[in-house]
Design a protein that fits this description.
The protein is α+β, with helices and mostly antiparallel strands. The chain contains five helices and eleven strands. The strands form two sheets. It has an eight-stranded antiparallel β-sheet with strand order 4-5-9-8-6-2-3-7, with helices on both faces. It starts with a helix and ends with a helix.
Amino acid sequence: MGLSSRSVRSIHTKDKARLSDLISKYKQLMAFHPSALSIISSRHENISKAVTVSSFSSLSVVSDKAPLVSFNLKLPSSTAEVIRQSGRFSVNLLSGVHGAEGIAREFAGSDASRSLGSEDKEGLPINWFPLSPQPYNTPMFNRTSLRQASSPAPSSQLAPLEENNEIAFARLDCKVQECFRVRDHEIWIGEVERVDVESIDKLSTFPSMVYHNRRFKALAEAKVAIQDKQKEVSQLLLRHNQK
């Protein structure tokens, strides 16, 4: 009975006739494997590009060297070309605050790699995003909220962010170390040269954005913590008003 059960639930690549079934099951499984979302941004000369990824990961941390990170980009990718030319990129760790999902979706897709230049009708205007210090000069999502934008929202689907909440809760500025191709993807490895975050202490109650079951979601634990804090503030205000 045990062998029969395993044969039903398992598919092996040696069964060529069932390869498509294996791929289908793999995609279904990965949909339920939550992944943190980031926006990779880069700029070369006057061209800025950005793309939402779920593949960003910490690769190596040792005591005497700067950390290494990695992410994957599906080819063709115009963002990859800008990173290749500039030799640098920024990783914007996305928050789960209201409205940030719309920004993440703006740069997601099979060949997202959206332009941030104002000449690109599909991209967001460049003046939405301040630029990081030289030599990076990349669009920063962690120092930007939709309320700070100087131009109207490019899409009615983009809800305004809650005041003082940033699209990304932190940014990593990186220098390219390696890039190599695997099938239809490129794997990029970068060395972290700058960490930009407002307050480490606040991160335990800050919502992160994840991709799960083909949906963008705020990390539940952080979301609950924020709701508890809001409830606490409301109760304090109520007691104050009753005095």
